[in-house]
Design a protein that fits this description.
Distance between the termini: 43 Å
Radius of gyration: 17 Å
Mean pLDDT: 94
Number of domains: 2
Helix content: 25-40%
Oligomer: single chain
Number of helices: 4
Length: 148
């Protein structure tokens, strides 16, 4: 398994200049002995360059640093996640609308379209995320977006 991690680090080492940190292997299910490749990255990061899985291991990431205002939720409230979905598609759209110049500059592409920016910062595929979110809201598994 450490061979897989080494190959992942080698393959994606150019992304380290953009803020990617490979933190190592992490066991997520001790009973099934399931591991993932654990990474961290800044919020503004081109996720299209990262796979969801690599050689059979899921790639799981966390955001380093503060989230933009569009993603701020009061996590001190009891059951906050039942009332607000931090990754609501509308939050990504609002952020791209407000910060498109900053996103283009940080990702090094002055000609990025709105769709490309949304895909880059939203898990690699914005439309897929939006479709899945709508489905989960309809099923009652996620709260609808109420706005900031």
């Amino acid at each position: 398994m450490f061979d897989i991690l080494k190959r992942f680090e080698d393959k994606f080492s150019p992304l380290k200049k953009k803020g990617l940190k490979v933190e190592g292997l992490k066991m997520v299910d001790p009973k099934k002995r399931t591991h993932v490749i654990n990474i961290s990255k800044p919020f503004i990061f081109d996720n299209r360059h990262l796979p969801k899985k690599y050689e059979g291991l899921a790639v799981k990431g966390k955001i380093e640093g503060d989230l933009p205002v569009e993603f701020k939720v009061d996590r001190t409230k009891l059951d906050w996640h039942k009332h607000e979905y931090i990754w609501a598609p509308e939050r990504f759209e609002n952020f791209v609308e407000r910060c498109s110049d900053q996103i283009r500059k940080q990702l090094g592409s002055e000609t990025m379209t709105k769709k490309e920016m949304l895909d880059a910062i939203c898990f690699g595929n914005f439309e897929e995320h939006k479709k899945n979110t709508k489905k989960l809201i309809k099923e009652g598994k996620l709260p609808p977006y109420k706005g900031n």
